[in-house]
Write a structure and sequence with these properties.
46% of the residues lie in helices and 14% in strands. The chain is built from 12 helices and 7 strands. GO terms for molecular function: hydrolase activity. This is Alpha/beta hydrolase. InterPro entries: AB_hydrolase_1, AB_hydrolase_fold, AB_hydrolase_sf.
Length: 269
């Protein structure tokens, strides 16, 4: 490993290694915060933020999938993990798959949630619309668009007017500086060739009422990976909000069954 990682990160827990890959316009805290304590109870968790999110400054150039994957792996190695599982959420799925393809000696298992291998026509249209909202300067319209497309319909349908207003406000306030570069990457990745190269235990978690990255994509990922397991979660694209306990349970059950024990100690960052 010669690449040094410039990514800010959170490091928690001890035990077998677990590297986290978050979604576009997200962060480790934003996408994994509600389940981070539960993961850290059993694993040494390394969670790097992408450029322009969380602890990492915005990039000065477009994001490249290979470099991002290499930097995530480098962050885990720099924190003392020789081998590790990777949990990828949304855009974190192609990032995790590329990391496993480029660094097979490091990766012991994959858990891929709400993910995709490439943008089909619908997801490309959605990502272009997302970029249009991000560049418009209309923060309220962007936030309303994000809630309508991100959260599952059953979750939004149950909201009171006050809960909806709070959710829209939260979406408005959580857009990171690097959102445009991250959504541009959504529209350009293609890791279909990486799927067949996976040789480690893999769980694909389908967010079953997801209208952003639809179950069509989840099944395409699972079908392309030899021996991949498939599970459904009753959630839209935001499992960390809509079904965090169920999501944590699926991840831990799979990793407990497939990841060999490794000793590890950690300091918080």
């Amino acid at each position: 490993m010669t690449t040094a990682s410039t990514l800010g990160r959170i490091v928690r827990g001890s035990g077998p290694g677990l590297l986290l890959a978050h979604g576009a316009t997200g962060s480790i805290d934003g996408n994994y915060g509600p389940i981070l304590d539960g993961l850290a109870e059993r694993y040494k968790v390394v969670g790097p933020d992408y450029p322009g999110s969380g602890r990492t400054p915005r990039a000065e150039e477009p994001l490249q999938l290979d470099r991002l994957a290499d930097e995530l792996v480098a962050a885990a190695v720099e924190e003392g993990l020789d081998t590790f599982a990777i949990a990828g959420y949304s855009l974190g799925t192609p990032v995790a798959l590329r990391a496993a393809s480029r660094h097979p000696e490091r990766v012991t298992a994959l858990v891929l949630t709400a993910g995709f291998a490439r943008p089909n026509a619908r997801l490309r249209l959605l990502s272009e619309d997302w970029l249009r909202h991000l560049r418009s300067g209309d923060e309220e319209a962007l936030a309303r668009w994000a809630v309508l497309n991100g959260a599952g319909a059953p979750f939004v349908d149950r909201m009171t007017a006050d809960e909806l207003a709070a959710t829209v406000a939260g979406a408005r306030d959580s857009v990171p500086p690097g959102a445009v570069e991250q959504v541009e990457l959504v529209g350009s990745v293609d890791v279909r060739e990486d799927l067949g190269r996976v040789r480690v235990p893999t769980l694909v978690i389908s967010t079953a009422v997801d209208s952003m990255v639809t179950p069509y994509h989840h099944r395409e990922v699972a079908d392309g990976i030899p021996g991949a397991e498939f599970a459904e979660l009753p959630s839209g694209h935001l499992p960390f909000v809509e079904a965090p306990a169920e999501w944590l349970g699926l991840i831990r059950k799979f990793l407990d069954a497939h990841v060999e024990s490794q000793a590890g100690t950690v300091t918080s960052r």
